[in-house]
Write a structure and sequence with these properties.
- With 87 residues, the protein is mainly β.
- The protein has one domain: OB fold (Dihydrolipoamide Acetyltransferase, E2P) (Beta Barrel), CATH 2.40.50.
- It has 1 helix and 5 strands.
- It has one helix at 60-66; strands at 2-9, 24-31, 34-43, 53-58, 76-82.
- The protein has a 5-stranded mixed barrel with strand order 1-2-3-5-4.
- A hairpin with a 2-residue loop joins β2 and β3 (34-43).
């Protein structure tokens, strides 16, 4: 399970067509309860925002979550937002 905290967003001047309409967010990865390095993740939920703790998936599943027929070039995708009450 990959957890992270959204700390910012990415603004692109040009995107690959398969990523049109998908937010790109900067996420600080959480490992063993400690915040580690920054990564860029596609927002598969289209609802995550700054300050949210999110669940991320990687590899092939990350791209397939966004589009099964024409998967975009995504290594990490936000699959869900974790409710702060459950932490």
């Amino acid at each position: 399970m990959n957890l992270g905290k959204v700390v910012g967003s990415v603004v692109c001047t040009v995107k690959t067509p398969t990523l049109e309409g998908i937010k790109l967010l900067v996420v600080r990865q959480i490992v063993n309860g400690q915040e580690k390095g920054l990564i860029i993740a596609c927002d598969g939920t289209r609802q995550a925002g700054i300050g949210d703790v999110v669940y991320m998936i990687g590899r092939k599943e990350a791209a397939l979550m966004l589009d099964l027929k024409d998967p975009p070039p995504s290594d990490t995708t936000i699959a869900g937002i974790i409710d702060p009450e459950t932490l």
